[in-house]
């Protein structure tokens, strides 16, 4: 260990009582002490604060910390002062006079760390006084707020780069975030002039978390059963709206659960009380909107249950990641319903005016939905989403535990994909499913789809089940989605390979399919299916799509627009 690092480790022990740095902290801190602008990406709870707090103690002058989490600033500063580190914060909770006093103290060298809300940088006057400080380190916490691709863009963050450039002596910059998507990382690096070699991305696997997706359940029943069997445990239930929080909270209280609630509609005092009750374990469960949890460091949260689909993976992983900070086994459960997906779509369209941003948010929502439909490891999916490749299956998520046998669904996939080709890529899941199921719906015939050769080729399945297959094919990128007004499906390159018999698809068998044994219509179709399978087996070398006995299909597939 070199001398600088040794000193850093001693400082860690002395002020924070920790024996050693975590993976990543060491790398980031050495880099910063070397004077290199650095980006550190670590999951929530990974220990990002230490990365600027230790250098702040070792460098001369003051460290500025930009953070959007006002509620967190006070806690952090209190904790630092308890540890004997002089620190202060300036945000909108202070009067003008108080803020001014703190700036004067800062100029006189009273603090090692000064936390600032980003909005401060909007004031030219403040900008000017900041320039008078002897700043050694400029730490940008929650740095994804710089990026329009992030899930929490703050225009004030864009001023940071200008401020740093205008400072009389250039401080070291350290950007920190839990959001690791490549586009967000690019934005941060570009905005703050950080070389790629000075970027550290920590492993995103949280090996003590088991992820679960529950589809098609009665959500309220599921929740009550779950809480009933996890009575002694601390957990968070996230719901999408205040109203939903109120309702769920009331239903749990009625069942005798010590539940608290938290959302933006409560007064500051009420919120503080509820949060305090939860942290002190007087309340076992917190029902909350996503307003809850930022900066809450409760280590023994055993489960985080999402009652509704979050709007993107970044938000989901941040919220779910509040489980198991103590390293003990914990569960992250997501209840999926198609209705909730519609609500999120609606919210995107209603709350955003810029069409490019609508597209971005819609894509993110789609990735969130895909998470609910993939069949491979969920932990792996998350890691891949955040740009980490080569992760092994976790062995404990609901997908890893799903022991249903995989069946070959290439034929069904070909039917779906060929039908989409016929319909010339203008439609969404519902219409495509209806055409395949041979629906008598007037809308279908008004488009002339009842005349297509693919009309009704899947009439052995209800349109809903076909819809599930489409969702699965989408999550595996055989089908792509465009369109901002409403989702429009198209066959991807990967999908074309399937059509041409170059790739087979396997899917876990649906629980439903074997159920209706006495249905004569079904058994006739099973027979038909067996025949078709045999035909394919007999003509093993012939691409499977010949089962449509449609010679033009091949031409159509090769002529697909790319
Ligand atoms: P983040 O900002 O990445 O979400 P925090 O900085 O809030 O995480 O740290 C999360 C928790 O980990 C805190 O309780 C912190 O004290 C603890 N922690 C940080 N570094 C270490 C370390 N080296 N050893 C033990 N605990 C640590
Ligand atoms: Mg943090
Ligand atoms: Zn897994």
From TrEMBL:
- The organism sits in which domain of life? Bacteria
Q: Which GO terms describe its cellular component?
A: bacterial nucleoid; cytoplasm; replisome
Q: Among its keywords, does the record have Transmembrane?
A: no
What reaction is this protein's catalytic activity?
Couples ATP hydrolysis with the unwinding of duplex DNA by translocating in the 3'-5' direction
**Cofactor(s) listed in the protein's UniProt record:** Zn(2+); Mg(2+)
Please provide the Gene Ontology terms (biological process) for this protein: DNA recombination; DNA repair; DNA replication; SOS response
Helicase C-terminal domain sequence ranges: 221-366
Q: What class of enzyme is it?
A: isomerase
EC numbers on record? 5.6.2.4
Q: Name one GO molecular function term.
A: 3'-5' DNA helicase activity
Provide the alphabetized UniProt keywords: ATP-binding, DNA damage, DNA recombination, DNA repair, DNA-binding, Helicase, Hydrolase, Isomerase, Metal-binding, Nucleotide-binding, Zinc
- Indicate the segments forming the Helicase ATP-binding domain, all copies: 29-198
Is Hydrolase one of the keywords?
A: yes
Of which family is this protein a member?
Answer: Belongs to the helicase family. RecQ subfamily.
Instruction: Please give the name of this protein.
Output: DNA helicase RecQ
Instruction: Give the lineage.
Output: Bacteria, Bacillati, Bacillota, Bacilli, Bacillales
Q: What's the name of its gene?
A: recQ
